[in-house]
Amino acid sequence: MIDWTPLADLVEKYDRFLVTTHIRPDGDALGSEVGMAGLLRQKGKDVRVVNTSRTPPRYDYLDPDGTFFEHFSTLAPGSLADRQVAVILDLSAWSQLGDMADFIRAFPGPRVVVDHHVSQDDLGAVFLKDTSAEAAGTLVMRAVKALGGRFTKEVATGLFTAIAMDTGWFRHPNTKPSTLLAVSELIEAGAEIDSIYRDLFERSTLGRLRLTGEFLSGLKTDLDGRVAYSTVSQADLARTGAIPSDTEDLVDYTVSLRGVEIGMLLMELPRGGGVKGSLRSRAGFDCARIAAEFGGGGHKAAAGLTVADPLPVAVDRVLAAIRKALDPA
Questions:
Q1: What pTM, to 2 d.p., does this model score?
Q2: Which residues form the DDH domain (predicted)?
């Protein structure tokens, strides 16, 4: 169990907090930010939530008036100079901070990391970490309780989103009895499960649906069906009218195919930025071990990586690593 005393001490000592998370934030990252900011504001703190990446449209219900999440590139130089403490959620690697990495490196005040991933860089921070937790949102929920906060409707909605998305809406192996007990408490506090589900899964754009169709039509298998994968290029995004965040969850289709042990999605990044990969596994295979070969990380059943090569080369390299891992002989 995490000892939350270091966070409580910082809350007691300081007044102005910065909360941030990883590039291309998902539901766990954004929902955890809502929960943490809510806790800190209940304690009378001045909080700004600033991310490298813009908020994907599917999560706009977490920020109804568009003022909660700020985008780092739009801020005036020095506008965060008054922040005294940096709270970093759902990541433990410099690469996951994107354009904010240099700012965090130079940040003069205390840094706190609240995370559940296995991999870890030296971020010069106090780590409040539990790799057995199903979501960063679970840890923020514990922090709210430890510091005497309240589960307002806003906080409950954010934390329910966090836990629901990192458990695949409670269908992944990381879903435990304690998971369901936790989210039941959030529902009692005001998280509207039907509304959240509609916002997340029943508001697709035409671009996302078209991209999903192309992703599925391009699905390939390897190693006699033990591996399934597909790719998304910049041309695919432009042709379908989709945006990068529309690829979230697409990788789950790869492991929905009978007999697949590892699924992979590789997405081409803009302006020659390489390729972002997502891995999923079944039957207990360790995705994080493969991702680590490319400087990535994550969990046993789900991990991410980035490859600097062009898309066709990246496919070959990651596939080779998967083949070696699945069939070392």
A1: 0.91
A2: 17-163
